[in-house]
Design a protein that fits this description.
By secondary structure, the chain is α/β, with parallel strands linked by helices. The protein is about 45% helix and about 10% strand. It is globular and about 55 Å long.
């Protein structure tokens, strides 16, 4: 098994930070889960970069993935979340870009697995807009996957992961528990039944005025500032594993 993950912050693993400051995330957990399930080593690469729009994911990242030596046997693709955060998101264009990736992988003889990202809309400003766009995109990508007989993991449609306990303080990225749940959903979809992680409900989240003001100051305003300057959180970054790394069957 030679597995490459491509995408944005969701696939990079932002929100699942390790003690040394590096990020892990669901794709790393899937690679470890595959190694354990198969009882053999897995080669793994992760080219995802936070902030990336779908077009560079299905062009630049995908071509780098297909150019790896030896060639990958499986690629997971998620993207479009950053596109949906921008005004005038065009679902038709995002589906067309995804279909381009589908055809490219078919030509190369590489298995493609499609994912929709988790739904953060319940706790975000203008979340209703994102929910409508994400629902439409997920439905369209699901139909595309069915048409091409591809595995599709509908994380956006998972109601459990919308709960606050799966999300980082910025309310946009999953935390370690959220990434663990996604990994279980993916492994199960790949035929390696894994119980999807469930967190204890815990105390109700504080949505008081001071807490909301702090959230906007620490997370929303910096994001808006980057948008005004035309910057991305991923500027100057590359994928965390740009070449094959071994993952053995004893990986946690």
């Amino acid at each position: 098994m030679r597995y490459v993950a491509i995408g944005d912050s969701f696939t990079e693993g932002v929100g699942d930070e390790l003690p040394d400051g590096t990020v892990r995330g669901w794709a790393d957990l899937v690679a470890a889960g595959l190694a354990g399930a198969l009882g053999d080593g897995v080669r793994y690469a992760n080219l995802a970069v936070r902030g990336r729009l779908l077009e560079p994911i299905v062009t630049e990242q995908l071509e780098r993935a297909l150019a790896l030596t030896p060639a990958p046997t499986m690629i997971t693709l998620n993207g479009g979340g950053n596109d949906m955060l921008r005004p005038g998101g065009d679902t038709g264009r995002l589906v067309a870009l995804t279909e381009r990736a589908v055809r490219r992988c078919a030509e190369a003889g590489v298995r493609l697995v499609l994912l929709s990202g988790a739904d953060p809309s319940a706790r975000l400003p203008l979340g209703g807009v994102m929910r409508r766009r994400g629902t439409a995109l997920g439905a369209a990508v699901g139909k595309l996957a069915a048409r091409h007989d591809l595995t599709f993991v509908d994380v956006f449609g998972d109601a459990e992961i919308r709960r606050a306990g799966y999300w980082s303080p910025d309310r946009l990225h999953l935390n370690a528990a959220g990434h663990r749940r996604v990994a279980g959903l993916v492994l199960t979809a790949l035929g390696h039944a894994t119980a999807a992680h469930v967190v204890d409900p815990g105390p109700a989240e504080s949505r008081r005025v001071l807490a909301e003001a702090r959230y906007y100051r620490e997370h929303v305003l910096p994001w808006l500032h980057r948008r005004v300057r035309g910057r991305s959180s991923g500027d100057g970054r590359t994928g965390k594993f740009v070449d094959w790394v071994p993952v053995d069957a004893t990986a946690p």
